[in-house]
Amino acid sequence: MNDIAHAGVTSRFKIRVEQKTYFGADGTSVLAIRDFELDIPRYSMTVLMGPSGCGKTTLLRIVAGLDDNFTGEVGFADETRIGLMFQEPRLLPWRTVRQNLELVAAPGFGPEDLQQLAQSVGIAEMLPRYPQELSLGMARRVALARAFATRPDLLLLDEPFVSLDERTADRLRRLLLDVWSARPTTALLVTHNAREAFLLADQLVLLAPRPTRVVAVETIPVPHGKRDSAAIEAIHADLLERYPGNFISA
Ligand code: ADP
Ligand code: MG
Predict the structure, then answer these.
(1) Residue 138 burial (CB < 10 Å; 0-12/13-18/19+)?
(2) With the CA atoms of 18, 48, 117 and 142 taken in that order, what torsion angle do they form, in degrees rounded to the nearest 10?
(3) What is the mean pLDDT of the chain?
(4) How close is the Cα of 230 to the center of ligand 1, in Å?
């Protein structure tokens, strides 16, 4: 029985990483994470915000089960379906966009679901194309659709909109919100972009520089639909005042 997927609203994903160290062949070591603890409420959009190099990707790889070389505990049931979206779209180049989605689709995710999802992320026209025919922005849309096609219990997003121009990035952030709102999903997104964090988070987690740990967890009370530039500025100003120092720059 998968008590995470089927439990009541109080169930959460728990992450505890006591320590994660990288050891180099030359005997050097890098302590990437220390005493990291976090609960992710179901159906929340939890955003981890921290500076480049603090350990965000390291943490997501641990949560995804791609790295078990750490001390601590990631408390998910075995059957938990994890959806991933990395910085690079990582589409299969010899498959069409449609096939890229079909290959990972959850059981019961049929052609109509695929069409509807493709339409909602704006890639319906691209379904017969191959990934190399797509711009980076389009490829990111496909990667986003692919992550949702798995109908994940937990969706992990690693700086999914990095290195796009700000307008494209903003469009995709809002698109993520639309798709996520229509398909209740527990999401964990990491970013070093403060604006992105303030736009997307309902639970905002501030991370320390390396070795990273949780500095603070904030609930952002402004509904997603009301986060225009002024609202984001206000969230920013409020956090700057309460966390002076390095944690909130950008
Ligand atoms: P972020 O995603 O926040 O930018 P990372 O998790 O990628 O940070 O990296 C955290 C720290 O660990 C950095 O100092 C990075 O250089 C180091 N690091 C990451 N991967 C490895 C690795 N495979 N071997 C050694 N050091 C690594
Ligand atoms: Mg990273």
Answers:
(1) buried
(2) -90
(3) 91
(4) 35
